[in-house]
């Protein structure tokens, strides 16, 4: 991608209403534009990162056995009347009337719709377990949309819904999502800690929020330091028997403000390991049994031929919120530092003198070689000053910067910089390419 032909409207300064660093940097890096309170247009650079995050989420869902579909954003109010949530949901729900006076709503979540799809087709326990997920825009008319994409009104969510014959089997589905989440966030370079969450009237212990620790997090959290340091389980697992793995991660104390109990925290956790911090909720998993299947009559025939209500769980990831969380966790004074896995480009090639034919030819050659190796390349072929080019490259946080100018070229070298560490080397092009594809 040639920067001169791209659309990267960077800003020198962030608007004053952007309070936290991720929001400021996303605006300055030309990733998003606010169209209304909590509603954003995704500009090309932002969209690239959103798609990368989405794809990691998708791959880990599929690995855990979930099946992707796509449900619409608009839903019929009558479906929500069946579960009783149409009236219960309150002012966060955006209610819409069509030309036939039919009541619709912009979905804040999809339990009712997925239950409706399930009951229309699945009649026997033999079709279970089933986990259906989609990655779709949601709308919640938040009282205080703020912090950019972190608390938007329109936001992208991955939501999965599991269906099982009984609670014991539902727990296995829950565990698969629990582990998928650990792997998902780790692939994005994040440490997300599972914390006990409120199960409300349903009770039980099967609800966890996945929390990224960050000073700007909206909720206070308390946990055992050792839990934060536990590595992700990885993919090579017995997906039917994850209980020990989940137990190892739920045995240690970890709770958000609402669930926190100071006495238990202190008795369970040695003083040196007690961590009080702030956190961002990037995911939430929840077993809720027959809450929807009972009123909506989602029943299957069990092994004895008797119909039973299915046991369900739902599993959300804040796909667009994750972008803010990743930036909160990974930036410096110069701008964003993307983890390789979610970076909008792999490398930016910086041409220090576009008027010099030899330099431009060397850049073209470098870009062609990198592309042939499967790299996503942003080529800064603009006639901006070198200082401005370096500042832009740092701001947008592409993991590698490959700079080619007349002086280096005369000496047969290019400069390769790693954004995360600032480390620079002057080496021949072939060696630079070797390093950044290693
Ligand atoms: P919160 O407590 O932050 O309001 P929630 O508990 O209402 O979130 P869930 O219903 O659990 O959210 O939704 C699943 C995930 O969607 C959350 O873990 C979060 O990452 C994301 N999410 C929820 N609300 C928003 C929002 N307004 N903007 C961006 N992401 C959101
Ligand atoms: Mg939640």
Automatic annotation (TrEMBL):
Similarity comment text for this entry: Belongs to the class-II aminoacyl-tRNA synthetase family. ProS type 2 subfamily.
PANTHER family per the UniProt record, alphabetical: MITOCHONDRIAL RIBOSOME PROTEIN L39/PROLYL-TRNA LIGASE FAMILY MEMBER (PTHR42753), PROLINE--TRNA LIGASE (PTHR42753:SF2)
Keyword Signal attached: no
Domain of life: Bacteria
Species, as recorded: Brevundimonas albigilva
Residues in Aminoacyl-transfer RNA synthetases class-II family profile domain copies: 38-339
GO molecular function, one term: proline-tRNA ligase activity
PROSITE patterns noted in UniProt: AA_TRNA_LIGASE_II
Functional summary from the UniProt entry: Catalyzes the attachment of proline to tRNA(Pro) in a two-step reaction: proline is first activated by ATP to form Pro-AMP and then transferred to the acceptor end of tRNA(Pro).
Compartment annotation: Cytoplasm
Gene designation: proS
Keyword annotations of the record: Aminoacyl-tRNA synthetase, ATP-binding, Cytoplasm, Ligase, Nucleotide-binding, Protein biosynthesis
EC number(s) stated in the UniProt entry for this protein: 6.1.1.15
Catalytic activity: tRNA(Pro) + L-proline + ATP = L-prolyl-tRNA(Pro) + AMP + diphosphate
Subunit structure: Homodimer.
Protein's name in the database: Proline--tRNA ligase
